[in-house]
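2024-03-11 09:14:02 INFO queue: dequeued item Disrupted in schizophrenia 1 protein, len=288
2024-03-11 09:14:02 INFO validating residues
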Amino acid sequence: AHKFRRKLEELEKEKNSLKFQLPSRHPSISSFLNRFVTQVQAALRWAADHRVRHEETQLWHETEHKLLRSTYQERMQVLTTKRNQLFQEKKWLQKEIEDLRARLAILEAKDQQLRREIEEQDNLIQSQDCELTALLGCISLRELQEISKAVDDTLTSSYQIPFSLDLPGTLKSLQEKEQSFSMSIKETTAKVCTSQKLCSTLRRKVSDIETQLPALLEAKMLAVSGNNFGTAKDLTEEIRSLTSEKKGLEELLKELLVLSARDVRKLERVKDDYTRVKQELEQGEAAF
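2024-03-11 09:14:37 INFO prediction written
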């Protein structure tokens, strides 16, 4: 009996030193995973923003070569547009900072909650250990032998049970689709905004030309009536040039409107697909 008592005490000490814990729940691993996810998300956002800005700059340069005879007013408009873009980017960065601060506050609250739960589990384990020690003092030798055999059988069976926390392949596929749709939404939204800005610029340019033409026509008629044919000829050339420029701008505007409408339809389809995949993913994760 003394021999079994010493053996039980040794086993009890060994059991107390071994605590079951999932690998992902370990504080150091959990902290590393949280930092890793945050860095990956930041890198993805930076890559997406860099790509959007690169596409905006490239499209702007391609359109700039097609615009003819830019005036001082148009250059000032370009500078104003660039300033507005920088201002919008600044607002977006401020919003991102606020979102990160909010997320940090949520993570800190979750960390406090996990600490409290760990303390409660430690207290529960200690209380159960005390109860088990008191219970073993009242058990007979035969019962101890039966308990020892049952524990061995249980441990042997536990090693044979497959255990995995990896998400199924279908859920991983849905996660990849969700990320792909999210990136597509950002890219398409940037294209739509850029097209709308260019369309607005072209409309203003066409409107300015339409405003100048009547005045030039009137000046030409006055020059002809005053037998000032040299001035009339110059005015005719300027009218012809502005008319040709207006026609080219209108054709370019039509092309941009078609592309913008196509991008808007694509954006709506991508948003619908993203919503559907997100719902399927949430349902699959909840079921898992």
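2024-03-11 09:14:37 INFO annotate: Residues 178 and 277 are 6 Å apart (CA to CA).
2024-03-11 09:14:38 INFO item closed
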